[in-house]
Amino acid sequence: MTLTREEQKSVLRMVMESHQGVTLTEARSNNDIKEEMKLNLEFYNALKEGFTEEGKTTLDEASGMFGAVLSVLGNIKDFLTGTKVVKDIMAWVQGLVQKLSEKLGPKIDQFIPQKIQDLAKDGVSAVEKFVKWIYNTLSYKGLAKLFAMIRYKTIKPTDEQKQCMELAAKKVYKWILITLVIAFIIKFAMIAIPMAIKAAAASGTAATGTAASTVQASFASSLKPIGAVLSKVGHGSLFKGALSTASAAIKTKDASKISSDIKAKEQEVKDKEIEGFKGAWNYCPLPQKESIEFDRMTQLAGL
C-alpha cells in the first residue's frame, strides 16, 4: 500500500467520524463499516498513486495535499456507489478548488522568510523552494485520475477515462496554481516594502529613490522562477501585471492597494480559465446504460 501508516489512520478516522463517533470496537464488529473503510483506503491509495506516478512526492502530509484532498472529499463511498450524484458540476468543482486552495494556502507561510538580510540572495532561495513545492504538490494528471474515479465511479479508471478528464483537470490545476502563486507574491512583496522603507531611511533623502529601486530590482529578480511557472501554463501576462503592481508599491513604499489590485487581476484570469469547465468535464460522453445492456444481451444471444 502506498499510503503511509499515518495516512491510513487519517482515512479510518474520517470514516469513523462520518458515522457520528462510532467507536473502534463497534467498527470492528460492523461489516458495513469495515467494507466502507476498505473502500476508502483503496480509493485514497489509488489516488495517491495517481499523483505520484510521475515520480513526484505529491499526495503526502509533507506537501499538505493528502490532508487537503481527504478533508475536502471525505468519505468517498457515496460517490462510488452512485448515492451522491454531482448535479451541478460547476458549483461542485468551484467548491472543490476553493477548499483545496484554502487548505494549501497556509503552507505558503513556510516559504516566506522571517528575516531577509539580502533580498537578492535570500529572496531567490525562498522563491526556488516555493516553486519546488508547487511542482511536487500539484499534478494535473493526478487531478485527472481523481475526476475519472468520481465521474466513472471506479477506483481503477482506464487510461482512456483519465485522458478524457485531462482537459478539466488542467483547468483546475491552473486555478489552484494561480491562487497559490499570487498569494506568495503578495506576501513576499509585504516583506520587500518594509525593506525599501528601511533602505531609503538609511540612505538619506537624496538617495531614497535609488535605495527603493535597488530593493525593487532585487524583488523582481527573485521572482523570475515564478514568472517561468506562470508562463509555462500560459499566464505570463498575469505575472507581469502582478509584478508591476507589487514593484510600484515597493517603489512608493505604499502597501495599501497591493493586495486588492493584484487579486483583481488574478480573479479575472481564473474566471476565464474556468469558463467552459462543464464542457471539459463532459468532453467524453458517459456510456449509455441502455446501450451497454443491449450489447450484453446481443452477445448472450450470439448476435
Largest sheet: none
Rg (C-alpha, Å):
24 Å
Report the strand count.
0
Name the average pLDDT.
81
- Total helical segments: 16
**Structural class designation:** mainly alpha
Which residue ranges are poorly predicted, with pLDDT under 50 across at least 5 consecutive positions? 290-298
In terms of quaternary structure, the protein is single chain
N-to-C CA distance? 43 Å
The number of domains = 2
Cα shape: elongated
Instruction: Give the percentage of residues in beta strands.
Output: under 5%
Helix content: over 70%
- The H-and-E topology, N to C, reads as HHHHHHHHHHHHHHHH
How would you portray this structure in words?
By secondary structure, the protein is mostly helical. It folds into 2 domains: 1-85, no CATH class; 88-287, no CATH class. It is 73% helix and 0% strand. The chain contains 16 helices and no strands. The protein has helices at residues 5-18, 24-28, 31-52, 65-73, 77-81, 89-104, 119-137, 140-151, 159-164, 166-203, 208-222, 224-232, 236-252, 258-274, 277-281, 289-300. Helix 1 (5-18) packs across helix 3 and helix 8 packs antiparallel against helix 10. The chain is elongated, with a radius of gyration of 24 Å.
